[in-house]
Amino acid sequence: MAQFDVYANPQPDSARFVPYVLDVQSALIDQLNTRLVVPLSRVGLQQARLPLSLCPVVDVAGEPLVLMPHLAAPILVRLMKKPVGSLAHRSAEIMGAMDAVLSGF
I need a labelling partner for 53 at 20 to 30 A (CA). Which of 46, 75, 88, 102 fits? Predict the structure, then answer.
């Protein structure tokens, strides 16, 4: 599993609104049976009050989605199937959003 890979959301209850999750966990702790993921949400695209520095819009499979780092959560590795893409080219922006959640910057 690679940091910044995108996976289909394995949670059927939320997949309609959050079709994908983004793996943000460092490879330094690959031995864990969970990965820290950030939801990529359809909800929030029209909400102007979400700051872009915290919740940037990303494109996955031609669909614009909102990164929701404030909703990051662990998911069991066994639930994550084959990645559908990567957002490694947006890593600086993603890490900035995670930093905004953790330190307020």
Answer: 75
Domain span including residue 68: 5-103
Q: 12-46 burial, b for 16+ CB within 10 Å, e for fewer?
A: eeeeeebbbbbbbbeeeeeeeeebbbbbbbbebee
Residue 56 backbone zone (phi > 0: left; psi -120 to 50: alpha; other: beta) = beta
Domains contained in the chain, number: 1
User: Rounded to two decimals, what is the model's pTM?
Assistant: 0.91
